Fold:
Amino acid sequence: MSIDIYTVIKRPIITEKTTKLREQSIYVFEVDRNAAKPLIKEAVEKIFNVDVVSVKTINIKGKLRRYGRYEGYRSDWKKAIVRLKSGQKIKQIDELQ
Structure:
């Protein structure tokens, strides 16, 4: 199964916590659920032109949500925590602030 590197990374996750992590050259992304760590590393390196030191992934289960009397589950998703080489930044994400 081949996945296009431009569909691996869905969006950056921007919260207070992830904004603080950027000072240490750590970025957090929502990624494709079928993407493996080497593929995530390759995608970040090619798309943003940076050097990736490590990738950690977390599978997040969808939460139960209620809308009035109806209830259902949010979709499961995968989060990737990417550490860049010391001193490197992803300019496109830093400009989103």
Remarks:
- DSSP finds four helices and six strands in the chain.
- The beta strands are 9-12, 26-31, 52-60, 64-67, 70-73, 77-84.
